[in-house]
Amino acid sequence: KESAEVCQLKEAFLSQKKVFENVAAYGEYAPDYREKKRALRKAKRQLDLNEHVAAFRYSETQLQSLLDQIVQALAEEVSNEIKIDAGSPFFETKKHFGCGGNCHAS
Predict the structure, then answer these.
(1) At what angle do helices 51-78 and 4-24 cross, to 10 degrees?
(2) What angle do helix axes 51-78 and 33-48 make, rounded to 10 degrees?
(3) What is the per-residue pLDDT for 3?
(4) Is the pLDDT of residue 30 over 60?
(5) Fewer Cβ in 10 A, N or C end of the chain?
(6) CA-to-CA distance for 98 and 83, rounded, in angstroms?
(7) Rounded to an integer, what distance in angstroms lies between the CA atom of residue 26 and that of residue 18?
(8) What pLDDT score does 87 carry?
(9) HSE (CB half, 13 Å, CA atoms) of 19?
(10) pLDDT over 70 (residue 26)
(11) H/E segment holding residue 26
(12) CB–CB of 99/82 below 8 Å?
């Protein structure tokens, strides 16, 4: 929110998103569908590659990883039968028993 460059990139992305959403329902039949889709992707990429946005997302991922580890440790202290939804396919857990194969922990 404090970076003027990020705010400008975000506004450009949201603008391109709105333009694309107006024609997305018509798909390939809409005039300039591909160009609008490319413009949206380009705006998104510029936003994602900004150093402030990338650093924020990296920090966000690190925080989520830490929270997942805390939840894992707490669950293990209580019981090995607790199902844990880590929300991340890359989350490493110990095998929990009693979830019947339908839980997200492995």
Answers:
(1) 80
(2) 70
(3) 86
(4) yes
(5) N
(6) 8
(7) 14
(8) 63
(9) 18
(10) yes
(11) none
(12) no
Q: Give residue for tokens 């019981």.
A: 79
Q: Which two tokens stand for residue 54?
A: 């990338």
Q: Which residue is listed with tokens 């506004």?
A: 11
d(CA 75, CA 14): 40
Residue 76: CB partners within 8 Å, gap ≥ 6? 94
Span 42-100, pLDDT tens digits: 999 999 999 999 999 999 999 999 998 898 889 888 887 877 776 656 544 455 444 55
Top-confidence range, 21-25, 77-81, 84-88, 102-106: 21-25
Q: Are 25 and 33 in contact (CB under 8 A)?
A: no
What's the token pair of residue 97?
Answer: 């028993």
Six-digit token string for 70: 């805390």
- Tokens in use for 63? 């925080």
